[in-house]
Amino acid sequence: MAIKSKITGASLRNLTLEDRRINDTEVSGFHAIKFKSGKIVFYIYYRLGGKQVNYKIGLGSELTPAQARDLARAKLGQVAKGQNVQEEKKLAREESKRRKYLNLETYLDKKYRPFLEARNPKTVDKIIGHLKSQFKHFLSKDLDRITAWDVEKWKSERIKLGRAPATINYSINTLKGALSRAVEWDLIEAHNLTKVKTLKNDNTRIRYLSEEEEDRLFEAIFNRTELIRNKRISSNKHREIRGEPLYPSLSGVRFVDYVEPIILTAMHTGLRRGELLSLTWDDVYFSHQYLVVKSSEAKSKKARTLPLNTTIMDVLKDWRKQHPFNHYVFTAGTDKPLTDIKKPWLRIVEKAGLSNFNFHDLRHHFASKLVMAGVDLNTVRELLGHADLNMTLRYAHLAPEHKAAAVNLIG
Question: Where, if anywhere, are coiled coils annotated (predicted)?
């Protein structure tokens, strides 16, 4: 049963659980409640739209009765002026919660990463790592301080460094996506990155190897393989002299590591980098000479079947013999999927003297060879996994004899 009394230190000490509440006699609406835990909380109550509203002033362990009474007077004064102090408190609490994530780096780690992990855990590290490496100077910025002008300046710098339009566009769109989620979650009111124009990307670029360049690539791969073999022999000789355990010999195997088989597989299947890295031995059907790209790994989200020629069948069979118990086709040391091939690839390209040739161009090389061998474009489209023929049409110019034959039909 509530009692009426001036709220003081003494009256609070004498307050029992049966009494539970003291209504202050000095400030109408100001009261203190005692809970079973022994905790005392100061409140005010007032009417809003005909309903009684309780507003928490603070804890008895943090405020003296006099301090709590002064705060109660101030809040009741605001209520008398028509202010909705309860709603203002709620908004202030939400703003405080939002402030926790406004720094870009904190937002990426605490809010955006968990969201990505729930959607597609395989891509989380790539996306977060990309944003942090490409936009280092934005990490300490509040989300609402990252402007279109900031990104335009970043874009100009990347263009001067010679970065590909597709690469720049990917970075900008990834940042836009992260900030759009922050808007959706009410962490910021808005962002203006929609004003940043994407760069025109020439999708017609085709880069494939001439016969002479292909020979140089294979020579560079062969030389790398022999160098690694010789280093292993030399290393084991030294270890033997010192009485240390020897490394596995590379003399009796075809491949010294994953590099040669993954390059050959790319050249003879046209698989995208992500499709190669996620490929498992369960996807390779040796008895029927084909492999399957699962829908979950395909860019189009549609599964496709790829026949394997004798060259790549031999490559995969020999590679499988070297790693009979692995789940993933391409691994580096452990049975975990390979995540990158950039460093060894760049060294091989340099040794082969190949200019302007990326790992993805092995896919172009595969498609170009097919077209130049007379394979129709729709079949090439199916093998590449293109959603429609528009992307495949870029290879049409590589078969001029077919165009000539078509014109001669009416000659």
Answer: none
Cα separation, 353 vs 322, whole angstroms = 30
Backbone angles phi, psi at 235, to 5 degrees: -65, -40
Q: What is the DSSP code string of 68-115?
A: HHHHHHHHHHHHHTT--HHHHHHHHHHHHHHHTT-BHHHHIIIIIHHH
In the beta sheet, which residues pair with residue 46? 53
- Give residue 264's pLDDT: 97
Distance CA 121, CA 68 (A): 49
Q: State how beta strands 304-307 and 21-23 pair.
A: unpaired
Which residue reads 């996620």 in tokens? 278
The residue type of 237 is K
102: closest CA among 173, 193, 186?
A: 186
Residue recorded with tokens 């026949």: 307
CA distance 71 to 42: 10
Report which of 44, 91, 90, 47 is spatially closest to residue 70, judged by C-alpha positions. Answer: 44
CA–CA gap between residue 111 and residue 187 (Å, rounded): 10
Helices 310-322, 259-269: inter-axial angle, 10-degree rounding: 150
Taking the CB of residue 384, how many other CB atoms lie within 10 A of it?
A: 23
pLDDT along the chain (411 residues), means of 10: 88 90 92 91 86 86 90 88 80 63 86 88 88 92 90 91 85 92 83 86 74 95 95 93 92 92 96 92 95 86 91 96 93 81 93 91 90 85 84 72 60 56
257 three-state secondary structure: coil
Contacts of 229 (CB under 8 A, 6+ apart): 250, 251, 256
Report the distance separating Cα 121 and Cα 124, nearest Å.
5
Q: What letter would DSSP give residue 26?
A: S
As a whole number of angstroms, the distance between CA 267 and CA 123 comes to 25
pLDDT at site 390: 76
Calpha distance 217→224 (Å, rounded): 11
The per-residue pLDDT for 25 is: 92
How many residues comprise the chain? Answer: 411
pLDDT for res 95: 64
